[in-house]
Design brief:
It is a single chain. By secondary structure, the protein is an alpha/beta fold. The chain is 42% helix and 15% strand. It has ten helices and eight strands. Strands 1-2-3-4-5-6-7-8 form an eight-stranded parallel barrel, surrounded by six helices. Helix 1 packs parallel to helix 10, helix 5 runs parallel beside helix 7 and helix 7 runs parallel beside helix 8. Bound molecules: 1,3-dihydroxyacetonephosphate (13P). 1,3-dihydroxyacetonephosphate binds next to strand 8.
Length: 247
């Protein structure tokens, strides 16, 4: 059975002071996490050490929001999977729509990043999702399946050790959440694609992301193929994020 997981993506937000207070409050709420449920925060690179220090000995997982596809060398500004591993990261988000949109990341590059993350013993959280124009042109299935297929081609059976996140671009940071029916329909497509590709991939967790809040989390997470959430804005508020995890 897929693991239940809620991941906070802080994006480019935070400060040493606000991180400390957020992580302290989340740590206090950790006891209310159900058996088999995971809580994870993905923080900006400069805060990895602080996060590692403050979450030592806790059940809350943590990780990064991106990684270089290269192993090492002359790649100014990039951060390698080996460096993330050395810090103790367990998770790395790859292929977030903001990386695809603002940094021109292709699905092939996203597959390479997922592979390098797995090679270093961490879990890639592979994001897929369609834009509003693509949804309105009835291209949702084609787009998300194509994005996932690039990663499947690259990972093969190793996809069983990844997490997939469906994030419709039109729902990110807009307050316009996909309805549970819209999200479930895409999750079911992704689940079937995973199952057909690899025997062990049926149990990959598929998270929904896009304006998840405390008041809509329960109805989304109640859907058969939604195993948790990838949460942006609401993950910066400890009460809100804890409430989403409780859902
Ligand atoms: P919001 O929850 O702010 O819509 O962001 C979703 C997201 O992009 C998480 O990766």
């Amino acid at each position: 059975m897929p693991r239940r997981l809620v991941v906070g993506n802080w994006k480019m937000n935070g400060s040493r002071a606000s991180n400390a207070s957020l992580l302290e409050t989340l740590s206090a709420s950790e006891a209310s996490l159900g058996e088999g449920c995971g809580m994870v925060v993905c923080v900006p690179f400069p805060y990895l050490q602080q996060t590692s220090d403050l979450l030592a000995g806790r059940r809350i997982g943590w990780g990064a929001q991106d990684v270089s596809a290269h192993r090492q060398g002359a790649f100014t500004g990039e951060v390698s999977a080996a460096m993330l591993r050395e810090f103790g990261c367990s998770y790395v988000i790859v292929g977030h729509s903001e990386r695809r949109q603002y940094h021109g990341e292709s699905s092939d590059l996203v597959g390479q990043k997922a592979a390098v993350v797995l090679e270093h013993g961490m879990t890639p959280i592979v994001c897929v999702g369609e834009t509003l124009a693509e949804r309105e042109a009835d291209r949702t299935e084609e787009v998300v399946s194509g994005q996932l297929d690039s990663v499947l081609q690259r990972l093969g059976a190793d996809i069983g050790r990844a997490v997939v996140a469906y994030e419709p671009v039109w729902a990110i940071g807009t307050g316009r959440t996909a309805t549970p029916e819209q999200a479930q329909a895409v999750h079911a497509i992704l689940r079937q694609q995973l199952r057909q590709a690899e025997a062990n991939a049926g149990s990959v967790s598929i998270l929904y992301g896009g304006s998840v809040k405390a008041d809509n989390a329960a109805s989304l997470f109640a859907c058969a193929d939604i195993d948790g959430g990838l949460v942006g804005g609401a993950s910066l508020n400890a009460q809100e994020f804890s409430a989403i995890c409780a859902a």
